[in-house]
Write a structure and sequence with these properties.
This protein is mostly helical and about 280 residues long. Helices cover about 65% and strands about 0% of the residues. It is globular, with a radius of gyration of 18 Å. The protein starts with 16 loop residues before the first helix and ends with a helix.
């Protein structure tokens, strides 16, 4: 292995995997799902979190080498070898049972490579191109897990996943800025008269709230465009995808309720609102 990523333990950081699961806007793997299916979803989430942790929390001078090592281990998995990294090894059953191709996992790694060299996005279109790497692959993997991977479903899934990513960028403005990254489009920040100083204060200024409200409207449109996917899926797949749509809508409601003040505390979906939105999404609305 080209870099000894095994010597770096993200679990030693301040937040465990369980903490990240609780922090998500949407149900990562509903307890209503069968144990094995739920385990596969959690394995995918564990891999994605591991890669993100490398991109965000590993020693900066080691990050690219660590990401190379993860990709090398992924190739080992797909060539029939035994992976050395637990987050890659945990994918093995899901990959073999559901025939998930390697490309979505490779794109998640590429997104984190891009994070090491790109810290700003000029336009919303550029941000969406980043989401092709950072968000869309997760939806493709989920569809493979439920035996529902078709091009038309990928298109709807891409809209949902991009929306969820944009919502997360809105919630995490302060945290991202502390890491040296700004995912809000630069042209929108200039349009509303925002500077970098506005992204790091204790309270969200009105001009920044305007930028966040604009991104939230875009995310809502994408969610609404992708929401029909749930109605195209049977049983458990429908349940899972409806949960993702519901989580996004509940998170948008939380942002609106807090008037887009994301710097003093991160708005998170209320459980009652999440349940209501889940029921709505299951009905296809």
């Amino acid at each position: 292995m080209s870099a000894d990523v095994r010597s770096w333990d993200p679990a030693a950081g301040p937040r465990s995997l369980d903490a990240f699961v609780r922090r998500e806007n949407f149900p990562v793997a509903s307890r209503l799902l069968p144990v094995r299916r739920r385990g596969h979803l959690l394995a995918v989430y564990r891999f994605a979190r591991f890669v993100d942790d490398i991109g965000d929390r590993a020693p900066p001078h080691e990050r690219l080498a660590y990401l190379d090592a993860v990709e090398e281990d992924l190739r080992r998995l797909y060539s029939g070898g035994m992976p050395k990294l637990p987050p890659v090894l945990s994918l093995a059953d899901a990959v073999h049972v559901h025939g998930i191709p390697s490309r979505p996992f490779e794109r998640l790694i590429q997104a984190n490579r891009q994070d090491q060299v790109v810290s700003r996005y000029e336009t919303f279109d550029e941000l969406q191109e980043y989401c092709v790497l950072s968000a869309e692959p997760v939806g493709h993997i989920v569809l493979y897990l439920f035996g529902a991977a078709t091009p038309d479903r990928f298109d709807l899934s891409d809209r949902i996943c991009t929306a969820l990513q944009i919502i997360e960028h809105c919630q995490d403005v302060g945290e991202d800025h502390r890491r040296g990254r700004v995912y809000l489009p630069q042209e929108d920040l200039r349009r509303f008269g925002c500077t970098d100083r506005d992204l790091s204060g204790p309270v969200t200024p009105t001009r920044l709230r305007g930028v966040l409200a604009l991104q939230a409207r875009r995310a809502r449109r994408l969610l609404d465009e992708g929401a029909p996917l749930a109605g195209l899926l049977p049983g458990l797949a429908r349940l899972a995808v409806a949960g993702y749509v519901a989580g996004g809508r509940a998170a948008l409601a939380a942002l609106e309720r807090r008037r887009y003040d994301v710097l003093c505390d991160t708005p998170r979906p209320a459980r009652v609102r999440l349940a209501a939105e889940w029921a709505r999404a299951l009905k296809g609305s």
